[in-house]
Design brief:
Helix content is about 75%, strand content about 0%. The chain has about 400 residues and is mainly alpha-helical. The chain is globular, with a radius of gyration of 20 Å. The two termini are about 25 Å apart.
Length: about 400
């Protein structure tokens, strides 16, 4: 028998309170800042490649390591949030992320040191598994999809990083790291005061391993993980690798490449709450299926290497809209089919798989380009995965009934 105590969710007929919106705003800001920190290496990766004499694969590995660690870290962090609550976990993880951000300063001239710090920087990517159960508990089912979508806009930290990091670096190599560290200090202090767990939250009494095992035995956990690995994984993969792709294939400057990559990330941010909003009005699986179908089609278009203006730009932005919508709708589905006391644990696993979905593509793209001098194969692989997700979401996931 599952001994986890159930957290009292918001009743379906209840209107969101002021505290609910306060927690949503704080969680979204914290998610954005820690995601900026998580993605600090990617916008500067071209500079590191030139400075350290890296191959395309080494460059890809450098930007992928934080993604891997941040993804796997969501599993224990999600379970710990079930146990200790977001009121403790959010400011704690935000404060701990300051350490690797500052360590990027002395590590920047050594590839080995950068990999080690990138490993620690992955901590910033775990706050996703803190915010989802927090927001899920505060909002009633009728408003939950949109609320989770708004929280998901925090992944715009990737866009902030892509746009601002290289520009801030023009005024000093170390300045981006100091700015982000200072922002995290301020947020951690405010979060300790303003973030609160929903009243009546009961602490699970069973062990971390038992709760993770119970979440892992749910079939829907792995079905959702697969869909999220495609949707959110695609977003993360493009967030960390798009600057490299644009600089290498279209010969853009690092600043221009970072700006256009930020535009891609901004579109995903805008469409994530749209995916949640649509999922409040129709079955989330239908939204996911349509969105992944659009992403698959655009990946095929990009595989034929269109000119950046207008063909490539349109294909990449529409793909971003599809992936953003899918990532929002998948977590709307999580909130409907997961027992409240297991939301953190399931979120950790699903979020981890989504992040891992973003870890592999940059390595594949770098390896394929090194071997073939082309990115077309990589885009065709993405289209195959997105099409498979489209078919599965429509054929299987739409049969899952709404939670009353």
């Amino acid at each position: 028998m599952d001994t986890a105590a159930k957290q009292s969710p918001a009743p379906a007929t209840e209107k969101p309170s002021g505290a609910a919106y306060r927690n949503l705003v704080m969680a979204t800001i914290g998610f954005a800042l820690t995601f900026w920190a998580w993605n600090l290496i990617a916008p500067m990766s071209a500079d590191y490649k030139d400075r350290l004499g890296l191959s395309s694969f080494q460059q890809s590995l450098l930007v992928a390591v934080p993604v891997l660690v941040g993804s796997l870290g969501r599993i224990p962090v999600g379970a710990l949030t079930d146990k200790y609550g977001a009121r403790l976990m959010f400011p704690l993880v935000s404060a701990l992320t300051i350490v690797p951000v500052l360590l990027l300063i002395p590590a920047k001239d050594s590839y080995g040191a950068m990999l080690a710090v990138g490993f620690l920087l992955g901590l910033g990517g775990t706050t996703f598994a803190i915010g989802i159960p927090l927001v899920n508990s505060w909002f009633p089912p009728a408003d939950r999809g949109l609320a989770l979508g708004v929280f998901g806009m925090g992944m715009g930290g990737v866009a902030l990083s892509g746009y601002f990091t290289p520009r801030i670096a023009k005024h000093g190599d170390n300045l981006p790291f100091l700015v982000v560290a200072a922002a995290l200090v301020v947020f951690a202090a405010l979060a300790a005061v303003l973030i609160s767990d929903r009243p009546g939250r009961q602490v699970p009494t069973d062990t971390l391993a038992h709760r993770l095992g119970a979440a892992g035995r749910l079939r829907v956990t792995w079905e959702l993980s697969a869909l999220y690995a495609i949707g959110f994984g695609g977003i993360v993969a493009f967030g960390v690798y798009l600057p490299t792709y644009l600089k290498t294939w279209y010969e853009l400057s690092p600043t221009d490449a970072g700006t256009k990559a930020a535009g891609f990330a901004l579109v995903t941010v805008i469409f994530r709450p749209i995916g949640g909003w649509l999922s409040d009005r129709m079955h989330p699986a239908l939204v996911s299926s349509a969105a992944l179908g659009v992403a698959a089609l655009m990946a095929i278009v990009q595989a034929f290497d269109p000119k950046l203006v207008p063909g490539g730009t349109i294909a990449l932005l529409v793909m971003a809209a599809g992936l953003g919508t899918a990532s929002g709708s998948v977590f709307a589905l999580v909130s409907q089919v997961t027992p409240q006391a297991k939301v953190g644990s399931v979120t950790g696993i699903v979020g981890a798989m989504g992040g891992l979905g973003g870890f592999v593509p940059p390595l594949v793209m770098g390896a394929i380009y090194s071997a073939k001098g082309s990115y077309s194969i990589g885009f065709m692989l993405l289209s195959d995965l997105a099409l498979a997700g489209c078919v599965y979401a429509y054929g299987r996931m739409r049969t899952i009934q709404r939670d009353a």
